[in-house]
Amino acid sequence: MQHSSGNTPSDMDRYLFDLNGYLILRSALTAEQVAACNRSYDAYQTIDGRVNVNNVHVHSSDRQEGLMLQQLYEGGKVWEDLIDHPAWFDKIVHFLGTDDPENFDGHHGPAFIDECFGTIRGKGGAQRLHSGGHVGTIRTQYRFHAGKFHCGQVNVLMALTDIGPGDGATMVIPGSHKSNIRHPQTVPVEDRGKELSTDGIEGAIEVHLNAGDAVLFVDAIMHGSARRTNAGKRRVAVYRYGPSWGYFRHPFRPSAELLERLTPRQRSIIMPHDRELT
Length: 278
Fold this sequence. Notes:
Elements: E1 3-4, H1 11-20, E2 22-25, H2 31-42, E3 50-53, E4 56-59, E5 67-70, H3 77-81, H4 89-96, E6 112-121, E7 127-130, E8 144-145, E9 148-149, E10 154-159, E11 170-172, E12 205-207, E13 214-218, E14 223-225, E15 234-242, H5 256-261, H6 264-270
Parallel strand pairs: 1-2
Antiparallel strand pairs: 2-13, 3-4, 4-5, 5-6, 6-15, 7-14, 8-9, 10-13, 10-15, 11-12, 11-14
């Protein structure tokens, strides 16, 4: 199983990301950061329904995905620090293929977070496998051209708990970011929303992580999560990065208070647009 260390992608990182569509970043977060993230999650895990908690949007439903937290970077300093975290940010910019990050004249940043969310998922929870190179959307595409990566979206999923066998691990199908054909065992677009089992999907593997590890992957890879069969809760956070000229996936916007607190680079990453906040 491939893993990476250091800030900038090595030649092996580039090769494995191109080959498989993902990299594992061991010990990306410190023990202190993991503890701070989990303390933040403790305040949300008993919420029922839809609640806005200091600009973090919390949604609890009966769906198998579990408790969903949107706009995590509003949740405190530890989440703000993850916006341009050194364990992955230079790799993100490299794989997105930002053309010339030094010459945006202040209009754009080197990347853009269009969504940052977390999930708390108990026994029985899962997420169907989705995406794949056959989808062909520009927003999530994998592309390598003229010696450079040009990916539409690269995600970082951080484990806040140990995630091993039975814990509902993230699943990927290595190489599927280049596939031209939909996997025969997965649901077509018109059947989205069905809560189908993630078991027995040929070619899919579980990505086991320790608390503090992260997996960096292009959104075009087929991904989801296994059904959790163990007791306890699986806690993860996901920051989704794209080119700075992109725009928000959901109708959430960073608060004025958050923008005031952040560094100039962090502000450029979460709001790189000359548009009025809504």
